[in-house]
Design brief:
Layout lengths: L2 H14 L7 H7 L4 H12 L3 H19 L4 H7 L5 H12 L3 H5 L25 E6 L2 E11 L4 H15 L2 H8 L7 E6 L8 E9 L9 E5 L2 E9 L4 H18 L8 E5 L10 E8 L1
Antiparallel strand pairs: 1-6, 2-4, 2-5, 3-4, 3-7, 6-8, 7-8
Helix pairs in contact: 1-2, 5-6
Organism: Halobacillus naozhouensis
InterPro entries: AraC_E-bd, Cass2, Homeodomain-like_sf, HTH_AraC, HTH_AraC-typ_CS, MarA-like, Reg_factor_effector_dom_sf, Tscrpt_reg_AraC-type_HTH
Protein name: AraC family transcriptional regulator
Length: 286
Amino acid sequence: MGWVESLQQTIDYIEDHLLDHLTVNNIAKEANASPFHFQRVFTLLTDISIGEYIRRRRLTLAAQDLFHTNVKIIDLAFKYGYETPEAFTKAFRRQHGVSPSQARRYMGKLQSYNRLVIQVSLKGAEPMKYQVVEKEGFQVVGIKKGFSIANGENLLEIPKMWDQVNSDGTTDLLLHLNSGPIDGMLGICDTSGKSSSDEMNYWIAAAYDGKPQKGLVSLDIPASKWAVFEVHGAMPDAMQKVWKQIFSEWFPSGGYEHAGTPELEVYTADDPYSPNCYSEIWIPVK
């Protein structure tokens, strides 16, 4: 099954089971992907998390029920997965700007989110520069923090983590230690040791063949075949743009699959705010 067909099948599965207890594990099975990888790709391509998509769709249907039926609000709350009418009312007001009772009286404008439909469009006019390389396993040292990806916590908190290491001297220390096969600072997404599909470790690290200094921890990156993509432009927009191109254009037509091991963002010594800044994205492939 192709990439587009697989994603559309997954969306159809979500829509067919909106009133059921949906889990990321069951959803990801429809796409033949790991829960973590599928959540990241879904968010990259749609700009919302799976959980947020499900919440928006349920509250959209709840608003339609308010208009077209006489079902009690308490019963609608239970129907759409809320344990109390108060929790339902709070979520409904956050999306629509009015309470369920106000919506039933046609007070205010509602916010409707339609089901996603994947449409194939012509892309790729803007070239992507990449090469495929093979490297033996190597060690990185740095700091790591755990984040949830379910509600986009990682997207909000990882930039704060970078601000912290840039201000407390950790960046200078890692650049001084950097002596491995990759030059530059590394941002690494890693799920090893995580029991939940919603969790990830993010590392700020450098390749280093030696014992970690106090305050730093190490991670072994396995021998891999890597697709290495060039990134040109100011952070973070340039990096985010290439990430989206990789999953919306390159993977569907490139003939490779993600190998499921840690991904690398490689940051050079260039000014990150310069339009001429150069960086890279390393994806393990098979």
